[in-house]
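ESCALATION

Customer reports they have been waiting on this structure for their group meeting. Please prioritize. Original submission:
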Amino acid sequence: MASPVTTPYSLFAGENNTDHYYRDISLFAVKALDLLEENLGSVTDALISFYQDDQDIKNYSREELLLEALMIGVYWNRYGRYAEESSDALIVVMKQLALLRKVPGQTGKSADEARGILGLNMMENPEHENSFLMPGIIGFEKLINWMEATGEFHREARQFGKWMHFMKDTGDGFTFICISLMRNIARQFSTISDQHLGKYTLETENFHSTVRQKYSKREDGISVNRK
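Update from on-call: job pushed to the front of the queue and completed.
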């Protein structure tokens, strides 16, 4: 039976062409960057100064690092609750299964299925919806470990590690303030995004629920269910 949703978004949104979409996304980009600059510019500059001799950080533009600061808030708001509730044992098992799924044959297939089941349980267990990951170094470490265990966020986890090292050097009080600010800006970003682009993604939630049911026992079910 074919899925009732063929695409989670449309660049037309009822119009005859995509001109309105490109206008709206341009307006959104300006507002979003202004929001990030005003609220996260100082901490981003502090990060750049801290890593002034680090070539890896130098390879990133300031705008990219501003977006990383936003991403920390987005990931904390969305996935922090699951990181808080995931046991150390489960994290270890997920990392081991990530290695096994690369083995050819039935071993890899079985590991893939196990990761799919455990991964979805980690990411979207309704029992954990009201959990809270306290902003701070310990919480940041939990989030990064959780991201690595899912197998979905290797690059993001590596970059977040840079931010965590920078924050750890300045103290847990500074970390609490920074992450709390990032979480707040992420919520504002979500509101602005919905105001300017929400009409182009009306079917996204339906797409998530449909695909989750269809691929609930497969590893690729994790990536299509990111929110």
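Sent to customer with the following note: The longest helix spans residues 19-50.
Escalation resolved.
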